[in-house]
Write a structure and sequence with these properties.
By secondary structure, the chain is α/β, with parallel strands linked by helices. 39% of the residues lie in helices and 15% in strands. It binds alpha-D-galactopyranose.
């Protein structure tokens, strides 16, 4: 009798906790997407469809949209050097852990972004406590410790890492950006970053990630760097093409030669940060001025953007043997980093879902093939 009562209590308790967890923490599909097949379904025979997220976005209605359309996520900012490693002995895992837990719980793949990048790197990384710049030996040890700690922590959750981000300069007469990693450690850090990441997780796929690879000049420099790494037997498995593009670029020919040139290297290609700005491409950040008054999503902008999305996905499909993942940089037009870049406080509409999470015309062009 006593045993029966205990059994009933256990069943009740389990049902209660199950119903709480399924109503409270399971994001629901946004009604604007009811009856619409997810992007990931349309592309299941082609590549993964990913999205960059913040910890906060996973607690809003955007979480439902993510689960409906995407099968891969990337932390937009929370795994970068500055946010995750703000002091020499201080790691800030909270936001990154909660995004990784969301991926695990919902069976999403996760890309790691990013291990070594001169932007959003904390100042302490390059200096001693007295402010003096560290030497190569100290910096290399710090890079190694950072990579080992971060990659080991997400071993088994993150299947691919952007190991080095944006190192190659855009201008024809310069090979690398003016990066303190290069200035202090020289190019040896590139090779070692890949080797240390591989040591920490031999199963993770390791990428070099960059923007503006549609420029033939910049692409040639990237290819040269990668060939050198390959010749030395460095564990590098792929190239990340950020894909921050716009209504004005890339052309079909530019993107096709980019995909074609990179595919010759025998590496995987991931489109890692896709968005199509509705303004002509500008690479440098600037203040908003009198010419920036037209910020509405006009029919003309919609048409140009829709056409650009159609064209690039046609090429991604054509190169499906090489392109294995396409990740959008942000979820919907409700918010994107392009609202503040290159022009501060100028609204952009770069994604496939509008501010109400409703699929845009561009969405239908991408899935109707
Ligand atoms: C670059 C970086 C990203 C991000 C974007 C802007 O592309 O790789 O991490 O900072 O800029 O959001």
């Amino acid at each position: 009798m006593k045993q029966n009562r205990l059994l009933v209590a256990v069943i009740f308790f389990s049902l209660f906790t199950w119903s709480c967890s399924s109503t409270i923490s399971q994001p629901s599909d946004p009604e604007q997407n009811a009856g619409i097949k997810g992007l990931k379904e349309y592309y299941k025979d082609y590549f993964d469809i990913g999205v960059a997220v913040s910890k906060r976005s996973l607690t809003t209605d955007e979480a439902g949209l993510i689960l409906h359309h995407f099968n891969s996520i990337t932390a937009e900012n929370d795994m970068k050097m500055g946010p995750i490693h703000p002091g020499e002995d201080q790691y800030n895992w909270r936001a990154a852990d909660s995004i990784a837990a969301f991926a695990k719980k919902n069976n999403l793949k996760m890309r790691g972004h990013t291990l070594v990048w001169h932007k959003q790197a904390p100042r302490w990384f390059f200096t001693h406590a007295n402010g003096d710049t560290v030497n190569k030996e100290v910096l290399m040890q710090r890079i190694k410790d950072h990579i080992t700690a971060v990659v080991s922590r997400y071993k088994g959750t993150i299947y691919a890492w952007d190991v080095v981000n944006e190192l190659i300069a855009d201008s024809p007469d310069q090979l690398y950006h003016d990066s303190p990693f290069i200035r202090i450690a020289g190019e040896e850090f590139i090779e070692m970053a890949f080797r240390w990441a591989h040591e920490a997780d031999p199963d993770a796929l390791l990428f070099y990630n960059d923007y503006n690879e549609i420029s033939a000049t910049k692409r040639a420099k990237i290819i040269q760097m990668i060939k050198k790494l390959q010749e030395k037997g460095v564990p590098i498995h792929g190239i990340g093409l950020q894909g921050h593009w716009a209504i004005s670029e890339p052309s079909y020919a530019q993107l096709e030669s980019t995909l074609n040139d990179f595919s010759q290297l025998g590496l995987r290609l991931h489109i890692t940060e896709l968005d199509i700005s509705v303004y002509p491409k500008e690479h440098q950040s600037r203040e908003r001025n009198a010419s920036d008054t037209d910020t509405a999503y006009t029919a003309e902008k919609e048409k140009l953007q829709t056409e650009k999305y159609r064209m690039i996905f046609e090429l991604f499909r054509k190169y499906k043997d090489h392109v294995q993942s396409v990740t959008f940089w942000n979820i919907s037009d409700r918010h994107s980093w392009l609202d503040d870049f290159p022009v501060r406080n100028r609204k952009d509409y770069p994604l496939l879902f509008d501010a109400n999470l409703k699929p845009k015309k561009a969405f239908w062009e991408v899935v109707n093939f």
